[in-house]
TrEMBL record:
Source organism per UniProt: Giesbergeria sinuosa
Protein name: 2,3-dihydroxyphenylpropionate/2,3-dihydroxicinnamic acid 1,2-dioxygenase
Presence of the UniProt keyword Heme in the record: no
Known function: Catalyzes the non-heme iron(II)-dependent oxidative cleavage of 2,3-dihydroxyphenylpropionic acid and 2,3-dihydroxicinnamic acid into 2-hydroxy-6-ketononadienedioate and 2-hydroxy-6-ketononatrienedioate, respectively.
Protein's pathway: Aromatic compound metabolism; 3-phenylpropanoate degradation
Gene3D superfamilies for this protein: LigB-like
Subunit structure: Homotetramer.
Entry-linked InterPro entries: DHPP/DHXA_dioxygenase, Xdiol_dOase_suB
Catalysed reaction, written as an equation: 3-(2,3-dihydroxyphenyl)propanoate + O2 = (2Z,4E)-2-hydroxy-6-oxonona-2,4-dienedioate + H(+); (2E)-3-(2,3-dihydroxyphenyl)prop-2-enoate + O2 = (2Z,4E,7E)-2-hydroxy-6-oxonona-2,4,7-trienedioate + H(+)
Family: Belongs to the LigB/MhpB extradiol dioxygenase family.
Keyword Oxidoreductase: yes
Name of the gene encoding the protein in the UniProt record: mhpB
EC number(s) from the headed UniProt entry: 1.13.11.16
Length: 312
């Protein structure tokens, strides 16, 4: 089998609250290059490790890991609505393999996915259906989270499964790096917000629009003294990227969840998708990785990065 990896940030504010035109063009060029590389690789399967932001998964039953055999995009922010072309049989086989590797994983035969999964698919492939895909959700937004060492074990099990396939596989991780958008916490939440976080599927168009307006408003002041959210932390982001590029994945086992939230923002935990993706690649042997791009972009509430890797 052949495998390539790309991990990149997502942000629903791209196109809704943009930085200066020079930065927009710079990112457009980075994404165009990544898309061209995906096109040249011509994957037969995409495995996308993604977070959910209370669009598909809620506290009525909040799993740490989910593999989907079927998935529909809710179309939040500016993402496309509709079904993904999920490789259902392979997703089920993967689930069996992971369970037999002594790692618990939930299975969904009808998962709703949001921008955390679909933005990256659209940016790197042009659509939700261009290639067969297996969506894998890693809880990165709804505390409590399992330890980082667990994410690594999960990613390794997925990687060992991919090694059994005779296919060109593109592994994606989407989210991060440092950032903290105004996603509510259930701890001490008023009833209305708690009810949304527990069972808020399929919100009304008005509720969706209000959520989007709140995020845009937060983007307008993010990184200033008016913003109550933890700011971006470029130093933390670059050290994390370096850890991945140097292949020091075992050091991630010791990551302290509370400390990361404090110094880099609560949604920084979307890097769990990167950890799983790199662990899947590392399960196939030594790799070489390259930082394609990094820039902290307040308007997008994103320590925005792209890293690519392949077997050495
Ligand atoms: O879930 C939302 O409504 C917003 C999510 C968000 C905002 C800004 C940057 C991101 O990476 C997000 O996922
Ligand atoms: Fe996100």
């Amino acid at each position: 089998m052949q495998i390539q990896l790309k991990c990149l940030s997502h942000t629903p504010l791209r196109g809704l609250n943009d930085p200066g035109a020079d930065i927009v063009q710079e990112v457009d060029a980075v994404l165009a290059q990544a898309r061209a590389e995906v096109e040249a690789f011509d994957p037969e399967l995409i495995v996308v490790f993604a977070p959910d932001h209370y669009n598909g998964l809620f506290y009525d039953l909040m799993p740490q890991f989910v593999i989907a055999t079927a998935a529909d995009s809710v179309g939040d922010y500016q993402t496309q609505v509709g079904p993904l072309s999920v490789a259902s049989d392979l997703a089920l086989e993967m689930t069996r393999f992971v369970l037999n590797s002594d790692v618990d994983v939930a299975l969904s035969h009808r998962l709703q996915v949001d921008h955390g999964c679909t933005q990256t698919l659209e940016e790197l492939t042009g659509s939700l259906t261009r290639y067969p895909v297996i969506p894998i959700i890693i809880n990165s937004v709804a505390p409590p989270f399992g330890p980082y060492r667990r994410v690594r074990k999960f990613g390794e099990a997925v990687g060992r499964f991919l090694a059994t396939l005779n296919k060109r596989v593109l592994v994606l991780g989407t989210g991060g790096l440092s950032h903290e958008p105004p996603v509510p916490l259930i701890a001490n939440a008023p009833d209305e917000i708690a009810n949304f976080l527990i069972a808020g599927r399929n919100p009304t168009p008005e509720a969706r629009a209000a959520r989007q307006a709140r995020t845009i408003a937060a983007g307008k002041i993010y990184g200033t003294s008016d913003s109550p959210q933890t700011p971006l932390n470029a130093e933390w982001d670059l050290a994390f990227i370096d850890t991945l590029v140097q292949g020091q994945l075992d050091s991630i086992d010791d990551f302290n969840i509370e400390e990361i939230s404090r110094v880099a923002g609560r949604s920084t935990h979307e890097i769990r998708t990167w950890v799983a993706a790199f662990s899947a690649l590392a399960a196939l042997g030594p790799y070489e990785a390259h930082k394609d791009y990094y820039r902290p972009i307040n308007e997008w509430i994103a320590g925005y990065g792209l890293v690519s890797a392949q077997p050495r």
